[in-house]
Design brief:
Number of strands of chain A: 2
Number of domains of chain B: 1
Helix content of chain A: 25-40%
Number of helices of chain A: 6
Helix content of chain B: 25-40%
Distance between the termini of chain A: 105 Å
Oligomer: heterotrimer
Chains: A mainly alpha (about 180), B alpha+beta (about 300), C mainly alpha (about 425)
Shape of chain A: flat
Largest sheet of chain B: 4 strands, mixed
CATH topology of chain B: Alpha-Beta Plaits
Strand content of chain A: under 5%
Order of helices and strands of chain A: HHHEEHHH
Radius of gyration of chain B: 24 Å
Largest sheet of chain A: 2 strands, antiparallel
Radius of gyration of chain A: 26 Å
Number of strands of chain B: 12
Strand order of the largest sheet of chain B: 10-2-12-11
Chain lengths: ~180, ~300, ~425
């Protein structure tokens, strides 16, 4: 009988440690929510980037690009970062997070959220940025950051306003 | 001399009878079936379901005849357990007025003679928020936003204690169970007391028959919302009642290019508007008047 | 049954005789009625496009939604309330000279109320939906909406001011004593009603926190004070004109007593104005904007400034004229004073009250409202209607009151009864 009791204790211990072993590390990792977003607004033909970059050498030197991508003017913390701090040098089809993790372009909000934590929190709650479609019944739609902000020069440009209303004395307001 | 007063009296009598007949014939003949039905229509809240359905059929027929488009008039009632609230991020509004014109398009407002806009964007110098006397309504720069200014769009605030509802002499405007303040356009007598009572200029008056280009009509309408209106009655923003009761965002929320507008159900703790109220510094316009508006302005940056 | 048929026949006879009275008169009478009818016709023709096309034919906009019509309405409700200044001396204090003219004064109040109601109907967007206001068949928002209150009290006051004089006149016509138990409570009731109609009209404006210019507690007292100057002023002028053309017994003493009461009312009016100005200018909050617009001009907009200063000056001069008996009890200065008061109070209570309430509007915009000619002609038309109603009422009431038109006289003059038709005449 004593041997059976000891056996049980060992089995319980193993099971407990196994469960703890799987759960604890899991709680340390952040629960990744999924946000249904439309595809990123790539320029025509530019993706997949590895189409060109797979056969090119990786030049890690911080410089102004002269041969390609000359239309991109970096205006986004350019004194501290440059292209290859966000774009993964080895595989250009992915973006690079701080911890080295690689993400797809359709999850680029995770990259933006690393610096812009407050805005990221608001975006996840659905109150940052444009809202459209349905707000109830699980049909809520999200947009990627890049759908509104140019990631290389994110500040929104000034736009031309729509015309002011007719003044009360305007002839178009009378008959 | 006995005859003379008699003749004069006869003359006046005949003249007045002729005048009366002459005036009444055109008046009576212009009273077609349509006018009689309109004249006898009951208050919307007093109608039974059948009467409402008959009314909708009549209206849809009339719109088809008058505007040549097939309208779909809804009388969708309030969804239970909803209280609609609105949020506006003043740090992000750039005063582009896209919301104003989206609203005009969505809600079949008159484009000219007269122009009717339910949303008004005012421009204030930075540093001032309460005193609206120095506001500029007709700013028209090349580009917005302009440096040193902030923009505040104002529309009906859908107050919980609406002064307009209090003063309407005929109950033509009331607060629906989901918090929307609506107008029954067929009941309004056009006295404009509600416009005098509104502290936010939320209500506008249709000074003449609205003029909408025939191809610009939005045919999905709600009886209390964006259906084609008639002259000499009051209308106002309804938080796009035809959209929100189907779960869609109001037109102004959707069109805003900077995402300054937020909308949701105040009774739902998970809604966007509740998040805004709980996490941002919100305020409401003219809170000292205790109208309890459901339009929350806030600043982010 | 016999008595009832007799009453009906008598009423019908009375009515036909009054019609005869109304349609016969001097040349001046015809010209006056014709002039009024022409003005009414022009006003009606100007109203038709407003009814057809919409209120866009006026100069009112979303920023200033009430204009000339409501200005006139406010002024006329005040004028109607002023009949109380005749009723109180006549029936409470039994002041003889005024007792002669009190019935005519009440008919004057009735005409004034009818004018006021016409102005409201001209201002309504959908007059065809007016039945929505009636309790029972419509949905009257009572007691929440002060417009509903206004409709009720104005109509009650109108009924009072028609029933009381008509009852008294008919009794005088038949040479019978009025039933004091019936008429005296009605007369006494009309005194608080007179105060009531103007208080309700004042509260209509007062209860709107959206318009700080009107949201002052002093508005109702100001209304009453200015009403008790302007109404009697019109009565004084009108009755002197009547004295010229008819046989009413109007002693100068009556006019001077009314003028004395007006002096007190004008003093209060000016005192209340001073209180308003002190409060706004000394506290100097943002809510001074409307008063500033009225008296100084705001951001370059100053269309009303000359009007209000002229009006206030007229009130001041009139007050001084009425204060001193030497000026008050001389007909020439009395009449000048009355005309000054009518104009001054009209400016102060009409455009000087309604328009600054909307300037600046709740979002700070300024729109200077000036009525266009259509609104002016419609207003003239309604004033002409009121004058015509008053003229016709006086045409019947004065002969009855002076005893010239009475049943006894009719019975004397009646030709020997022949055919039934003759008897009905």
């Amino acid at each position: 009988m004593k041997r059976a009791g000891e056996m049980n204790r060992i089995i319980y211990a193993v099971i407990t440690w196994y469960i703890l072993g799987t759960l604890l590390p899991a709680s340390a990792r952040e629960i990744r929510e999924e946000f249904p977003v439309p595809p990123p607004p790539f320029t025509e033909g530019i993706f997949p980037c590895s189409g060109c970059h797979a056969s090119m050498e990786v030049n890690q030197k911080k410089r102004e690009l002269k041969d390609e991508h000359t239309n991109i003017k970096l205006h986004h913390a350019e004194t501290m970062r440059w292209c290859l701090d966000c774009h993964n040098p080895a595989n250009r089809d992915k973006l690079r997070l701080y911890n080295g993790e690689l993400i797809d372009f359709n999850k680029s909000y995770m990259l933006c959220g690393e610096c812009h934590g407050n805005v990221f929190r608001d975006w996840k709650a659905g109150i940052h940025g444009k809202r459209h479609g349905y707000f109830a019944g699980g049909k809520r739609t999200y947009l990627l950051c890049v759908h509104c902000h140019d990631s290389h020069s994110p500040r929104p440009k000034p736009i031309k306003p729509e015309p002011p209303p007719y003044t009360p004395k305007d002839k178009r307001n009378a008959r | 001399m006995q005859d003379k007063p008699y003749t004069r009296r006869e003359f006046i009598r005949h003249l007045s009878l002729a005048a009366l007949t002459g005036l009444s014939i055109p008046l009576l003949s212009s009273c077609g079936k349509e006018q009689v039905e309109d004249f006898l229509q009951k208050h919307f809240l007093e109608m039974t379901r059948q009467e409402k359905e008959a009314l909708i059929t009549r209206l849809e027929e009339r719109y088809l005849k008058k505007y040549g488009r097939r309208f779909k008039v809804s009388t969708q009632e309030a969804i239970p357990d909803t209280l609609w609230g609105y949020g506006l991020d003043l740090s992000r509004c750039i005063g582009c007025r896209r919301c104003v014109y989206a609203c005009v398009e969505e809600n079949n407002s008159s484009r000219r003679n007269p122009q009717s806009q339910w949303i008004r964007v005012i421009r204030l110098k930075k540093g001032s928020l309460i005193n609206l006397e120095d506001s500029e309504h007709y700013y028209n720069p090349e580009q917005v936003p302009e440096k040193g200014f902030l923009y505040i769009p104002v529309q009906c605030q859908h107050c919980e204690e609406p002064p307009c509802v209090k003063v309407c002499p005929v109950h033509a405007t009331w607060k629906e169970p989901d918090g929307l303040v609506v107008v029954d356009y067929n009941w309004c007598i056009g006295c404009r007391y509600c416009i005098a009572a509104c502290p936010y200029r939320g209500r506008t008056f249709n000074w003449a028959e609205p003029s909408v280009p025939s191809d610009k009509w939005n045919t999905s309408v709600h009886y209390l919302g964006n259906r084609p209106r008639m002259r000499n009655i009051v209308d106002k923003c309804t938080f796009c009642i035809q959209r929100v009761r189907m779960g869609r965002y109001p037109a102004c929320v959707e069109v805003c290019p900077t995402g300054s507008r937020k909308f949701g159900n105040l009774l739902d703790p998970q809604s966007e508007i509740r998040y805004v109220i709980e996490n941002k510094r919100t305020f409401r316009l003219k809170e000292d008047l205790r109208t309890e508006p459901k339009f929350y302005y806030f600043f982010e940056a | 049954m016999q008595a009832f048929r007799e009453t009906v026949r008598e009423t019908w006879r009375f009515y036909r005789k009054t019609l005869a009275l109304v349609f016969t008169g001097t040349k001046e009478y015809y010209l006056w009625c014709l002039l009024l009818l022409c003005i009414m016709l022009i006003g009606f023709l100007c109203y038709l496009p407003q009814f057809q096309t919409g209120l866009i034919t006026t100069n009112m906009k979303d920023q200033v939604v009430w204009g000339l019509y409501i200005s006139n309405f406010t002024f006329l409700v005040g004028v109607a309330a002023a009949a109380v200044l005749l009723v109180v001396p006549a029936y409470i204090y039994q002041f003889g000279p005024i007792k002669e003219i009190v019935v005519l004064g009440e008919l004057f109040a009735a005409s004034s109320i009818m004018m006021a109601l016409l102005f409201v109907m001209a201002d309504l967007g959908r007059v065809d939906r007016f039945w929505h206001m009636f309790p029972g068949i419509g949905t009257m928002n009572f007691p929440s909406s002060l417009l509903a209150w206004d409709v009720i009290v104005l109509n009650i006051y109108l009924m009072l001011n028609l029933v009381i004089p008509v009852y008294l006149l008919v009794k005088t016509y038949y040479g019978k004593e009025p039933n004091k138990k019936f008429i005296v409570p009605l007369i006494l009731f009309s005194i608080p009603m007179a105060v009531g109609i103007h208080t309700v009209t004042a509260f209509l404006y007062n209860g709107l926190p959206a318009r700080p210019f009107w949201n002052a507690s002093i508005l109702a007292p100001r209304f009453l004070a200015s009403a008790f100057c302007s109404g009697p002023a019109i009565i004084i002028i009108a009755f002197q004109i009547l004295r010229e053309y008819t046989f009413i017994k109007l002693e100068d003493r009556a006019l001077f007593k009314i003028a004395e009461l007006m002096a007190y009312a004008m003093f209060l009016n000016l005192f209340f104005l001073m209180s308003e100005m002190f409060k706004e200018y000394y506290s100097n909050t943002i809510y001074i904007a409307s008063l500033k617009y009225l008296y100084e001009g705001l951001h370059g907009h100053n269309a009303l400034v000359p009007w209000i200063w002229v009006g206030t000056l007229m009130n001041l001069i009139a007050f001084i004229l009425f204060l001193f008996p030497v000026a008050r009890e001389r007909l020439s200065t009395l009449n000048i004073g009355c005309i000054l008061i009518i104009a001054g109070v009209w400016i102060e209570k009409g455009p000087g009250l309604v328009i600054p309430g909307f300037v600046p509007d709740p979002l700070g915009e300024i729109y200077e409202y000036i009525p266009n000619f259509r609104e002016l002609f419609i207003s003239f038309g309604i004033w002409a209607t009121g004058f015509l109603i008053f003229t016709l009422l006086m045409k019947v009431a004065i002969p009855i009151a002076s005893g010239e038109f009475s049943h006894a006289k009719y019975m004397e003059e009646r030709p020997p009864s022949g055919s039934k038709k003759q008897a009905l005449l």
